[in-house]
UniProtKB/TrEMBL annotation:
SUPFAM superfamilies: RmlC-like cupins. The keyword Metal-binding applies. Belongs to the pirin family. This is Pirin. Its cofactor is Fe cation. Residues 197-295 form the Pirin C-terminal domain. InterPro entries: Pirin, Pirin_C_dom, Pirin_N_dom, RmlC-like_jellyroll, RmlC_Cupin_sf. Binds 1 Fe cation per subunit. Residues 42-145 form the Pirin N-terminal domain. PANTHER family: PIRIN (PTHR13903:SF8), PIRIN-RELATED (PTHR13903).
Length: 332
């Protein structure tokens, strides 16, 4: 997924109060139109004003459930990425992914699309055309994982995992999307110690999930009426949980779903601008130059061409008139 803001800056403006001092933090999302001012609205909770990352997770969008029966739905033209992995996860609906490696993959609920940008890749995302009878509801999440220095200039890659390990009990169903949890390991490629898992709870369900005390964690509310360690969450909001805890407790009044994220605190400082993750202003400037040259028809391809999308590629926004500076995972 792209950050399609016309003037993407380093600023993020939404945050919540500390739930318990210096430990847990309630993060509120801001609404961003996806695909331009008239595009579908998404709830962006990371990066946040004071909390930019959870482990290596540096970008978290959630969207829907949206009625797209008589609407285009998701329409994100070809755009570039560097220095990250994109993680696409659906709760309802379908999204068609195409990229410059030649991938053409329809993603459905419970399936993982994982794209590794490395030094550069381009992709598009769209609700299937009416001829393919796209489903009337779209509900999902999009996340970015920052690649560590040793891997961020590597080759691009794409993975689709239709089957993932799942733990089912009377009180919860847990699907391990990336990393390891409860003795289950996802087949998805990861470059940092991390975890991502969807938690589905029935009415009155409660999950007491053991977690790695070296990780920082966060729980993103996806649907229902959920509480995390006794704290009520609104749709698209996220509760940050500091390292040191060995258990996360989630309970639900009615059926509900949440996303558990975590990872070892990411110590490298990042420059995040538009769809690029780098380490310096100069890197971002060069990535923008390379993308604009390719859009103009240059043949020395860094990002490659996405075939099959019925429309033009996204132009890169103008850079701000200030130097982009590397920033750490939080301001605390």
């Amino acid at each position: 997924m792209s950050n399609t803001e016309d003037a993407p800056g380093e600023r993020t403006v939404c945050y919540g109060p500390l739930v318990s001092p210096a430990e847990d933090e309630l993060l509120w999302p801001r609404q961003v139109p996806l695909g331009g001012p008239r595009g579908m609205l998404v709830r962006r909770v990371l990066p946040n004003r004071y909390r930019r990352m959870v482990g290596p997770w540096c970008f978290v969008d959630s969207y829907g459930p949206a009625d797209i029966a008589d609407a285009p739905g998701m329409q994100v033209p070809p755009h570039p990425h560097t220095g990250l992995q994109t993680v696409s996860w659906l709760l309802d609906g379908e999204v068609l992914h195409r990229d410059s490696l030649g991938s053409d993959q329809l993603i459905r609920p419970g399936e993982l699309n994982l794209m590794t940008a490395g030094n550069g890749i381009a992709h598009s995302e769209e609700s299937p055309a009416p001829a393919r009878r796209h489903r009337s509801v779209l509900h999902g999440i999009q996340l970015w994982v920052a690649l560590p220095a040793a891997d961020r200039h590597g080759a691009a890659g794409f993975e689709h995992h239709a089957e993932l390990p799942t733990l089912s009990t009377a009180d919860a169903n847990v699907t391990v999307i990336m990393g390891e949890l409860a003795g289950l390991a996802s087949p998805a490629t990861a470059y940092s110690p991390l975890v991502a898992a969807e938690v589905a709870l029935p009415d009155g369900g409660e999950l007491r999930q053991p977690v790695d005390a070296e990780f920082e964690h966060a729980v993103l509310k996806l649907s229902g009426r959920l509480r995390v360690d006794g704290n009520k969450l609104a749709d698209g909001s996220m509760l940050y949980l500091a390292p040191g805890r060995t258990e996360v407790r989630i309970d639900s009044n009615g059926p509900g779903r949440a996303l558990l994220l975590g990872g070892r605190p990411f110590t490298e400082k990042l420059v995040m601008w538009w769809n690029f993750v780098g380490r310096s202003h100069e890197e971002i400037v060069q990535a923008r130059v390379d993308w604009e040259h390719e859009r103009a028809g240059a043949t020395d391809s860094r990002f490659g061409v996405v075939h099959g999308y019925a429309g033009a590629a996204l132009p890169a926004p103008e850079l701000p008139q200030v130097t982009l500076r590397p920033r750490g995972r939080s301001t605390h």
